[in-house]
Write a structure and sequence with these properties.
The chain is of the alpha+beta class. It contains four helices and ten strands, in the order H-H-H-H-E-E-E-E-E-E-E-E-E-E. It has a six-stranded antiparallel beta sheet with strand order 1-2-3-10-5-8, with no helix packed on it. A four-stranded antiparallel beta sheet has the order 4-9-6-7, with no helix packed on it. Strand 6 (148-153) and strand 7 form a beta hairpin.
Length: 196
């Protein structure tokens, strides 16, 4: 059975918490028309728009990952009677792809009900995004697997290459950009607590 689309998940979550399109638009500074188009899968949001929607709906941005399990709101407790597996197979990772910003994420942990989040990120050459402040203070580690990644922290920028890592307070993150002219930047991020 195919998983819900990002638009389906937004619409279902909005209904769960009793928000109208207009109310969600007001909370996100987006238009109701734009949100309606996203819910009907007629357009894809930018990472910034998706973060705004996630915050207004009270979920992690990773709630919108494309997977085969039902999405879980933030801080949800595991209630499944299925046996828990700590293994996440490469071909079974939950994914979030945002073609508008050239950004893709893959969840590296079995679920979002833990003390940290781990995911891989990928940015195409000449793409990047401005980071919005997360709703709670965090600590983050980024480890670059390939390409070059520009990490903007408050008033300084760092270009990281394969094998480089950076550790910082989440509130300092301003932007992530692919710094490779012809190769994707691929990295692993670990964030605690899980608020991404």
């Amino acid at each position: 059975m195919p998983s819900d689309s990002m638009g389906d998940r937004i619409k279902k979550r909005r209904a769960e918490i009793g928000l109208s399109l207009r109310e969600l638009a007001d909370k996100t500074d987006l238009t109701a028309s734009f949100i309606s188009q996203v819910e009907r899968n007629q357009t894809k949001p930018s990472i910034d728009s998706l973060r705004r929607v996630a915050e207004a709906l009270g979920v992690s941005i990773l709630f919108f990952l494309d997977d085969h399990a039902p999405p879980r709101p933030m801080l949800a407790k595991r209630v499944s009677s299925l046996k828990y597996s700590p293994v996440v197979r490469a071909n079974a990772r939950s994914r979030l792809i945002l073609p508008v910003s050239g950004l893709a994420y893959e969840l590296l942990v079995p679920d979002l009900a833990r003390q940290m989040e781990a995911f891989s990120g990928r940015l195409s050459p000449h793409t990047g995004n401005v980071a919005r402040r997360l709703r709670a203070p965090t600590e983050e580690l980024i480890y670059v697997l390939s390409g070059a990644l520009r990490v903007g922290l408050e008033d300084e920028e760092h270009i990281l290459y394969r094998g480089d890592s950076i550790y910082f307070e989440g509130t300092a993150l301003q932007k992530l950009e692919c710094a490779s002219p012809d190769e994707d930047a691929v990295w692993i991020s670990v964030i605690t607590p899980p608020v991404f």
